[in-house]
Amino acid sequence: MSAQFLIGVFVPTESLAEPLHQLLAQKRFVVSWSRSASEFIDWVVSNRHRIDCLIVELTSDIVEAFGRLKQRDILLPTLAVASTIGSISIEVLCEGYHAAVTALDVQDLSGVDGAVRLAVEQYLELPAAGKMGEPLASELGGSDRDKRLFLLSLQQQRLAEKLKERLGYVGVYYKRNSQNFLRQMSVEERQEFLEKLRQDYRHIILNYFSNDSAINQKIDDFVNVAFFADMSVPKIVEIHMELIDDFSKQLQLEGRNEEILTDYRLTLIDVIAHLCEMYRRSVPRG
Q1: Exposure of 85 by Cβ count < 10 A (0-12 exposed, 13-18 middle, 19+ buried)?
Q2: Which DSSP string do the residues of 249-266 spell out, in sequence order?
């Protein structure tokens, strides 16, 4: 498992971006820089399950970008910096995204490492069990609000586990929330959740023997989601067998040999091994 901490940056002002780039290069971060708001949004959407923190400049573009991310229920730790007096206020961004957005004055860029840590810690403290702050929940009602709370909780738990196991952040701990377990979901939530997992697993299978360098990360992401939902190994096997059966029918229609599908037992073994390791590490040590 990778110990890399992934940060997405959108800082369009060059005079601010240059020193920030130099500072981040000295830290144990993997950084993705976006040149435009649209590029930033596309990157965040594509990497939403891998991102650990966002660093943005307070501009009208970023307020609009975070509004669009919020509509997709993508809520992530965020550090906002200001390059000039009169920039969009942090309160505006908090109202448009979530209440845990952390501010960093442009004069204090040398403290970006600690500011990133603070942004993550504040994000992990966002209420995710029915006590959501007004800036995040005031306009939400019923199932929409429940869905956002559920997705936020999963993201918080994934990040907390990563910080504890891979980065060693002091005071950050991991604890699964039984309210997010598969057996606690409504019928509609369970169907939506399992369909998303099937699509993710299908992508893993199709790319398992390719030169996709990100396949290990995709397996990690899949296993993390399954683990936090308390999915059983037999359920993973069921998803695997359903997909292999679909592939088999397709190959038969095309008149092609099905023997190649036996190789994908390795994919199942790999995923189960990762999931079993997650469960092993979750057992309290005496």
Answers
A1: exposed
A2: HHHHHTT--SGGGGGGHH
Q: What does the alpha-carbon distance between residue 146 and residue 106 come to, in Å, rounded to a whole number?
A: 37
Q: Which SS3 state, helix, strand or coil, does residue 104 take? A: strand
Q: Which residue has the higher pLDDT, 277 or 58?
A: 58
Chain-centre distance for alpha carbon 75: 9
Domain spans in the chain, listed from the N-terminal domain onward: 6-142, 183-282
Q: What are the backbone angles phi and psi of residue 132, rounded to the nearest 5°?
A: -65, 140
CATH entry, 183-282, from 1.10.10.60, 3.40.50.300, 1.10.1240.30, 1.10.3720.10: 1.10.1240.30
Domain covering 6-142 in this structure, CATH number: 3.40.50.2300
* pLDDT tens sequence across 65-101: 999 998 888 889 999 997 554 556 778 777 788 888 9
Which residues, in sequence order, are bridge partners of residue 105?
Answer: 82
